[in-house]
Specification:
This protein is α/β, with parallel strands linked by helices and 481 residues long. It has 2 domains: 265 residues, Glycogen Phosphorylase B (Rossmann fold); 191 residues, 3-Layer(aba) Sandwich (Rossmann fold), CATH 3.40.50. The strands form 3 sheets. A 9-stranded mixed β-sheet has the order 3-4-5-2-1-6-7-11-12, with helices on both faces. Strands 15-14-13-16-17-18 form a 6-stranded parallel β-sheet, sandwiched between helices. Helix 9 packs across helix 13. The termini are close together. Bound molecules: adenosine-5'-diphosphate. Adenosine-5'-diphosphate (ADP) binds next to helix 1, strand 13, strand 14 and helix 13.
Length: 481
């Protein structure tokens, strides 16, 4: 099965969130399932630099706007196509400028991604043609649209299409005035097509025109069919419920594995948990936290946004410190949340540490060195940090929502008794619920042998990419059948 994956991020070349981890892990995992997966991306500078062997493709197709198509090899071995166009060279963030505003040419940046995906399905590379085009998030939302347009124009089936929602809240909506620049027949802009409250929505394009839809956890697949999390698209998702499935993301063990992680102070596994204490000591020293071991160290590695429930971490901080706990935060995002965290860390530097910015290596050291990883999200399509926490015996404290609900089992008495507990789960996005879960974490921490048992249960949970790849391969097969 030949599959083209169209996406905007790819770990470790370019990453703004979990999307990059998924897009990098999936081609390899699918390779083991007999899929021949190639990756199509814009040649953003960081991506171009990571594919030094990329060469222009010899093709008779003409790309718009002085663009060229390159073919090369990704660090993990997959073949990729890079769209080399002058607009992609502007700025370091693929989506926003230095002031955090969406690039003025965003619609063109990502329309071209969708368009070239469809052209590859039409035969742009004479030597390789995908049977399935798999687009990720709104950036690739127009891939199924251009594919449908190509099928109508050529009056034949061109390729199957899959569209994966990693976060429905980011939709890629643009004013109707961009319409002529998208070069699509008029019928695509109606209420049953790209139109969304008077605008053009790339996300909706993917949802309407892809043969099959997936999202990154079974619970999120249900949640987005309701008004609360449907972001205005729940009606249309309900209409497509039969084509929508939730496939939980996996963890790439080559990158996130405490037994082989070169970025952490001391490697460990479930049989050598004493070594994890060394990771904590080193982390405390690195962050200027007091060297204490009798109360839990809580970690946050996250975009600092409203979605991630960071306001609860702030509201619950006095309680956390009063109980003797510590907090280590790595992240960046919302200026108000950053300022509040900065103030909290300055007020109690031996108990609260903050590192603003993006730091892959420190992320590993926090996941390894903390006792609890906090993910109290308002909504969470899948969430990766709690999966990393489970693997590292760093018990996740999460809200029961989206992929968090699908991956963490609360340390309630019955779950402790059954041997299924792996972390701490609370229901409502309210301080009382959050604090109750935190209290369970403090209480369990004092029962050392039970804590270690839950750690072992967490580490034994296997969220691997094989299961996810199985799920995606089944979706592809259902289209080709
Ligand atoms: P989202 O994609 O919504 O941001 P996920 O949990 O799916 O959330 O993925 C976030 C990914 O980004 C994880 O791999 C996490 O470790 C990483 N990450 C988030 N913030 C930072 C940061 N400041 N520094 C390093 N890695 C980060």
């Amino acid at each position: 099965m030949k599959v083209l994956q169209a996406c905007a991020e790819f770990y470790p070349l370019l990453k703004t969130g979990g999307l990059a981890d998924v897009c990098a892990a999936l081609p390899r995992a699918l390779g083991a399932h007999g899929c021949d997966v190639r990756v199509l991306m814009p040649a953003f500078p960081a991506i171009r630099a990571g594919v030094p062997d990329a060469e222009p493709l010899d093709t008779t197709f003409a790309l718009a706007g002085g663009a060229r198509l390159l073919r090369g090899t990704l660090p993990e071995g997959s073949t990729c196509y890079l769209i080399d166009a002058p607009m992609y060279a502007q700025g370091t963030n693929p989506y926003v400028d230095a002031e955090g505003r969406a690039h003025a040419d965003s619609h063109l940046r990502f329309a071209l991604l969708g368009r070239v995906a469809a052209m590859l399905a039409e035969g742009l590379d004479g030597a390789w043609r995908p049977q399935i085009v798999h687009g990720h998030d709104w950036h690739a939302g127009l891939a199924p649209v251009y594919l449908r347009a190509a099928s109508s124009r050529l009056r034949r089936w061109v390729a199957g299409s899959v569209f994966t929602i990693h976060n429905l809240a980011f939709q890629g909506t643009f004013p109707m005035s961009v319409r002529p620049e998208l070069d699509l027949p008029a019928e695509f802009f109606g209420i049953d097509g790209l139109e969304f409250y008077g605008q053009v929505s790339f996300m909706k394009g993917g949802l309407v025109y892809a043969d099959k839809l997936t999202t990154v956890s079974p619970t999120y697949a249900r949640e987005i069919q309701g008004a609360e999390q449907g972001c205005g698209l729940d009606g249309m998702l309900r209409a497509r419920a039969a084509d929508l499935s939730g496939i939980l993301n996996g963890v790439d063990p080559r990158i996130w594995n405490p037994a082989s992680d070169a970025l952490i102070a001391m490697r460990y596994d479930a049989g050598k948990l004493a070594r994890k204490a060394t990771c904590r000591q080193r982390l405390q020293a690195e962050l200027g936290l007091e060297a204490q071991a009798d109360a839990p160290l809580f970690g946050v590695v996250s975009r600092l946004t409203e979605q991630k429930g960071i306001h609860l971490v702030l509201e619950g901080l006095a309680d956390l410190v009063r109980r003797g706990g510590q907090l280590a935060v790595l992240g960046s995002g919302d200026a108000t949340l950053e300022a509040a965290l900065r103030e909290a860390a300055a007020a109690r530097p031996s108990r609260v540490a903050l590192r603003l910015g993006y730091d892959e290596e420190l992320a590993h050291r926090i996941v390894a060195g903390a006792d609890v990883i906090l993910v109290p999200s308002r909504f969470e399509p899948c969430g990766l940090t709690q999966l990393y926490g489970l693997r590292y015996g760093t018990l996740p404290l999460v809200r029961r929502v989206g992929g968090l609900a699908d991956s963490v089992v609360d340390s309630a008495l019955e779950n402790l008794a059954d041997g299924t507990a792996t972390g701490f789960v609370f229901e409502r996005l309210e301080l009382g619920d959050y604090l109750a879960a935190m209290r369970r974490a403090f209480a369990l921490f004092q029962r050392r042998s039970e804590w270690r048992k839950v750690q072992a249960q967490a580490m034994a949970r296997n969220f691997d990419w094989e299961a996810a790849a199985d799920g995606y391969a089944a979706v592809y097969r259902s289209i080709l059948a």
